[in-house]
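Cross-posting from the modeling subforum.

Setting up a comparison between two proteins and wanted a second pair of eyes on the formatting. Protein 1 (sequence, then structure tokens):
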Amino acid sequence: MEFPATPPDRPLEIHHSPDALAGLGPAYLAIGVFDGGQLGHRAVIGRAVDDARREPGAAAVVVTFDPHPLKVIRPEAAPRLLTSTRHKFQYFAGLGATHCLALPFDAAFAVTAPEDFITALASAARPLREICVGFNWTFGRAGAGNLDLLTRLGERHGFAVVGLPSVAVDGQTVSSTLIRQAVEAGDLARAARYLGREFTILGTVVAGQQLGRQLGYPTANLAAHNEQFPPNGVYAVEAEWRGGKYPGVVNLGFRPTVAAPGGERLLELHLFDFDREIYGEDVEVSFRRFLRAERKFANVEELRAQIGRDVESGRRCHSETGKI
């Protein structure tokens, strides 16, 4: 089951207060944390987008929370994020949402009564037409709000409520937890089935030691915005930058051949036949195929030779997929 991305009619507008709903016209809201943008999330957002498009002048608004609520409520239980808030904005826009209400989540917000949270949205919107959620979504203080309460509040305030069932793939209910487990285990094919797309990492290009350039294979070092990574190693990838897509390979790990012990984990991207300065730019990396595990080489010359083989393996992978 796949929900193809739909190019937005206009760039996603970001808001941080319910008051912003007042100027948007009839509002159709999709509400959730939406970490990962998996198939269930895409179904909820897609329903709000489709319903909004049926009414001239209506706004499809994704309502989410920053940071992840568990980072405030139970930080010891907070999951490693599949997508940062910044990354979410990209896939919200790709699904056709016109606006995002990214609500700051702090200790004070965490104790908001569920009725007060929904009333604030309904009071600000002109008008609120619909709220779309997953059927098991909970909200408000101690998660006291649920679909039944939301339905009653909809009747009180005059908006429709859509509670969508979970999505199942391979007999499993799709969840962000299952995707994290698949990514951590290196089962990128399973993660992709749950996501409805390939697993991606969004990162900002930062200055490195220029070692790749010295070896003849220049790399862009990415400071990742997400927190969940696949196992260390070399992968065939496709990078998206400024709307263009570029094949390449990524080395994820600690560079044991050249790094000092205890060094930081690095995400180094080499793009084939690419010669542009992109420091400070955001790049989204789609993981296509695992090529080999990270290992330590006897010297830099052995490392250089292996990188050459990795690049050839990556080129063959992209040639076989036929996607680039």
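Protein 2 (same layout):
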Amino acid sequence: MLAYFNKRKAEKLHEQAMGLSDEGREDEALALYYKALALDELRANTHYNIGLIYKYQGVWDKSFDHNMRAQELKPKLEAAIWNLGIAATALGRWKDARDAWIKYGVKMEPGESAPEMDFGLSVVRLFKPDGGGETVWVRRIDPARARIINVPLPDSGYRYHDLVLHDGAPNGSRIVDGQEYNVFDVLDLFSPSDYSTYSVSVLAESEEDVDALDEMAEENGLIVEDWSANYRNLCKACSEGRVDDNHEHDQDLESADWNPERALGIAAQKEDELSRLLERWASGRREVTGVECTLSAERH
């Protein structure tokens, strides 16, 4: 009889904790979840919810433990298996990560090493300190890690070739050339790159001038991003869903008229390599009007 009442009380505490979590009161929610487990330790959903909170807080050891327990108690709880894989990846527990992905249904071999695969192109959202989020292209190397292949804006705190840990549930999509790509939220920086971000202002009379700089940079291992053309502010609904091209935004892509004043982001490993590139490029109608290292690799 006591066990029955404990289970009932644990269920009520679980429901109250869910309400607190919905309000963003995660620490209070955790306290109630733990009280629920003290009464009924076999609650798989409570372990999962605790692991979920710790995932978003970046407390990876506790997220791992609770997701592991949740899937032990409920072996077909797919969300717990996936989050176990993310937590194991964050901790570098590669055998556990591989085992989780395989159990979920991902095709890979078991082993002790970090997966290095090709999961194709996708998009991730980089959360900024001000609460905003920039989306950039990545190439995924396993179910939870991806390498940035754009040059993000410096206020994102991320750089070209950073390896990021991302969530598993898509939060929006982007359609390019008729193909839809999922948007995944970044959870953490997994491994920093050795590229710094330089904000470069130039005068370029045509798009071909910027293309020429891009080609010259690629030949020398540098990456150019035309922020003037590629950056677009979206409302929350479009950012976290599908972009509605009929929906006006505060700052859309540039107008059809070419503006010779370009704001570029350039990723370079060495400043002297960037200087040589810009010296080669600048001639006649092309001019470099400003160069600043706005996110150094040393900051990581």
